[in-house]
Every structure is written in C-alpha cells, then in structure tokens.
Design goal:
Low-confidence stretches: 1-55, 434-451
CATH superfamily of the largest domain: SGNH hydrolase
Largest sheet: 7 strands, antiparallel
Strand content: 15-25%
Mean pLDDT: 84
C-alpha cells in the first residue's frame, strides 16, 4: 500500500472512531425483536473496532450497571444521590437513566455526577471540584416517557478504575413511581422534600440527611477510555446481585472478577456490568422482567459488550410455580445464545449452585437442578461453561453449599463464597478476541463449537 493510501486509511479510521456529539435520547425499551440500537445509541469504536485497536484509541466502554427490579415511591421533590462502583476508569463519563417500569413520564429537573469522597460506608460529599452537571442533548432537563431509558451527553470527568461515583437525580414533583433497583448493597442518600433547585449540585452533601439501600433511576455508567477492550455482562439473580455479602464492600462476584481483570493488559481488559436482580427468573417475570425479556435492554445493547455470562435459573426451580422440565431451561438458554450470537456476543453458561437446607429445598427440586446442570455441562448449549456448582458445593453433601461459603441461609454466598466464584473464572474464556456486538458482528465473531465445562480453578490461584 502506498504512503498516501495508508494516510487516507488512517484518516478514515479516525473519522469512524470519533464518538457522536450527542448520544442521549428517551425512547421505549425494545421488544425482543427490536433493532440493535433501540435502547440507546452506541458509539462506533467499541462496537466496530478490533479489540487491539480499541485498547489504543479512546472508546466508550461500560463500567457499571444495574438491572431494574420494580418501582417505588419517593417523597415529592426529593433528590437521590446514588453511589456506584466503577469497574474501569476513563477521562469522561455518561450515565443511563431509566423510566422503564414507570407509569408516568419522568421529568428530570437536575442530574449531576461527581467522584465520591473516600470513606466507608460512604459519604454524600463529593470530592471538591469534581461535581459536574449532566445534560441530555445539551439541556439540563429531560423527559423520559413511561417505558423509556435515556443516555446522557458525555461529561468530562476523570475517574479511576475501582472508584466510587455519585450520580444525583432530582426528578420533578409528580413524576410518579421511581424505577429502581431494590438491593443495591450500597448506601445511597436522599435529600427530602423542599430542597429545591441546586440540590443535585450541592458538593458538600449536607442536604442529604436520609439514607437508602436502593439505586433510583440510574442503571448504567459508561466511561471513555484507552484502558479496556469492551465489557462482560453478568446476567443473573440474587447470587449475582450479591445478596449475602457484606454491604458497602463491593464483594459481589462480578466486582471481584473486575478486580482480577484490571490486572490484565488493556487489550485484554474488560469492564464488568452486573445485571443481577434478586428474585429474577429465567423463564417468567418475577422480580423484574425475566432474563429472556430483559436480555436486549440489560445486556445486548450495553456499550461495548463482548461476553455475556448467564447465571440464571435457580428461582425458576424453587419458585412458585416451580419449573420442573429441564428441557424448558435448555430452550431458554439456547434462545439467549442465539440472540447474543446475532450481536456478535460470546455466551458463557454457569451451572446452578446448591440450595440444600433452604426452606424452598426439596429432593424433587434438587433433581431438576442436577438435570439442568448436566445439560449445561454437556457443552451443547453455550460457547463455554463456568462450573460454579463444583466450586461451592460441599464435597460430602453436594446438594448443599460448603459451610465456609454459605452466608447462613443455605442459598446465598458470603464474601468467601463470592471470592471463590470470581477466582474460579478462567479469564481466557472472557478475554478471547471475539469482536463487536452490533450489525457488523460477523466481521469479527465466529461462534465456535460448544464444549463441556472445564474443571474450576482453585480459589486464589
């Protein structure tokens, strides 16, 4: 290739890689067959660039996520300061807000972001000089129709991997029930009624006199970075949501996995997005929409997604009505995989962990769990398998969790258990150069033949 042609090719690449000036809009949550960009406009770089190039050119990457579990009321006029933990850092951020489950239009009067002042269990105070106003298509206010999400304009703010970000939202009074994530396991802060304009921009946080254990409105944070090659989304239930772990410590297994991924070189590093919802099911709606229903909104349209980890199904087995047909799980898993492959996303399946001793346990339900796990391990469904069951089960009583991993309710894992899950993940299964999600996926993604589960890594190795 001549020097002139090489220069033209480079200029064309830089032009295509430049992010759009405005990425926010309010629009309805897509149906299962919605087009790739129905939830939020996604930039070209993470979705249209090979991983090694994305690691060198600043690109938008998902850094934090939560799924929506329902709606709840807020005091009229209240502002909420959400604290979220970023998995990758960058030089700019943008936030995703949701009215997906709301029954009325959501009017946003003020939204801000800031780095949280260090300290546990956290503080409503921002690091001095870090607070920024958030805009939507250049405006500081926005209206989200019922059933809609919106992504903000880029905000220039340097954040580090593992940093805590404050996302403050002050909705207009009368906006109706708030779409929220019930079990944040992070302390958030509420400024009660009557605080008025400017509350979201208060750096010291003195107006935030009440605390909450939920996240309100905010469902995602992207960062612009040269230090990651995309994201992995963990789609799951309370075991992914972190129930059983110590609050305000970020000991969910996806958080601990993110810490391991941060040690990799940028061309292999991934942000980790936690789409776990306590009580969530694979086959039917329960707490939040089912995994099948929310796959597009919570996984496939997240920025830079390259790998999807599916850890869902135990609530279908132990719930009411209980799912008893293992083949129904297989059909659902295959549907998830097919839809993900259409976007160029690699899918890793996870075996279902034990719940012997829990009040919902019965031998018949255990038989269903074992049948589902046998089918998952068989290697005919997913691109790869993580055998979390083998990691945490009691060797002497395999229908139960190991006592040192059990949080005490015989279903959920404590801090040691989630650490074992994160340490057991073979990072090579997540960081292979599978490429972009979106309509150009076939250029980079070739689904390989499914294979059986590999033996779990020993914790700490």
């Amino acid at each position: 290739m001549s020097r002139t042609r090489r220069m033209l090719a480079a200029l064309l690449f830089l032009t295509l890689a430049a992010p759009a000036a405005h990425t926010a809009t309010a629009h309805a949550v897509p149906a299962d067959t919605a087009p790739a960009y129905a939830v939020a406009a996604r930039p070209a770089v993470p979705d249209g660039t090979a991983p090694h190039a994305a690691a060198r050119v600043p690109a938008w990457t998902g850094s934090w996520e939560t799924g929506v579990s329902g709606t709840t009321a807020l005091p009229p006029g209240a502002a909420v300061r959400n604290a979220v933990h970023l998995t990758v850092g960058g030089t700019a951020v943008r936030v995703r807000l949701s009215n997906r489950l709301g029954t009325e239009p959501l009017r946003l009067d003020e939204v801000t972001v800031a780095r949280q002042r260090p300290g546990r269990p956290g503080s409503p105070a921002a690091v001095p000089g870090s607070l920024r106003a958030v805009t939507f298509r250049g405006e500081r206010t926005a209206v989200l129709p019922s059933g809609a999400d919106a992504v903000s304009d880029p905000v220039r703010l340097t954040v580090a991997a593992g940093a805590d970000l404050l996302v403050t939202v002050r909705p207009h009074p009368g906006s109706g029930p708030a779409t929220y994530h019930r079990d944040a396991l992070r302390t958030g802060f509420v400024a009660p009624y009557g605080t008025g304009t400017g509350t979201a921009a208060e750096e010291a946080g003195t107006a935030y006199t009440a605390v909450t254990g939920s996240w309100y409105y905010v469902t995602g944070v992207d960062v612009r970075t040269t230090h990651a090659a995309g994201t992995v989304v963990a789609l799951g239930d309370s075991l992914t949501d972190g129930i059983g772990t110590t609050p305000d410590t970020d000991h969910r297994w996806p958080d601990l996995l993110a810490a391991r991924l941060r040690d990799l070189p940028p061309q292999r590093r991934l942000g980790v997005l936690n789409a776990g919802i306590s009580g969530n099911r694979l086959l039917r709606d329960g707490t939040g929409p089912s995994a099948l229903s929310r796959l597009t909104a919570d996984a496939l349209t997240r920025t830079g997604v390259r790998v999807l980890v599916v850890f869902e199904g135990i609530n279908d087995i132990k719930g009411s009505p209980a799912a008893t047909d293992a083949e129904a799980f297989v059909r659902a898993y295959r549907t998830l995989v097919t839809r993900a492959h259409r976007r160029g996303v690699r899918v890793v399946g996870v075996t279902l962990t034990p719940f012997g001793g829990h009040r919902a346990y019965t031998p018949a339900r255990e038989a269903v769990r074992q049948s589902v796990n046998t089918l998952i391990r068989g290697g005919e469904i997913f691109d790869a398998v993580l055998d979390f069951d083998a990691v945490v089960r009691d060797p002497d009583r395999p229908w139960r969790i190991r006592p040192d991993y059990d949080c005490g309710d015989h279903l959920h894992l404590g801090d040691a258990g989630t650490r074992a899950l994160a340490d057991a993940v073979d990072l090579a299964e997540l960081t292979v150069p599978y490429g972009p999600s979106g309509p150009d996926a076939p250029v980079w993604f070739t689904p390989r033949s499914p294979r059986p589960a590999t033996p779990p890594r020993s914790a700490g190795s």
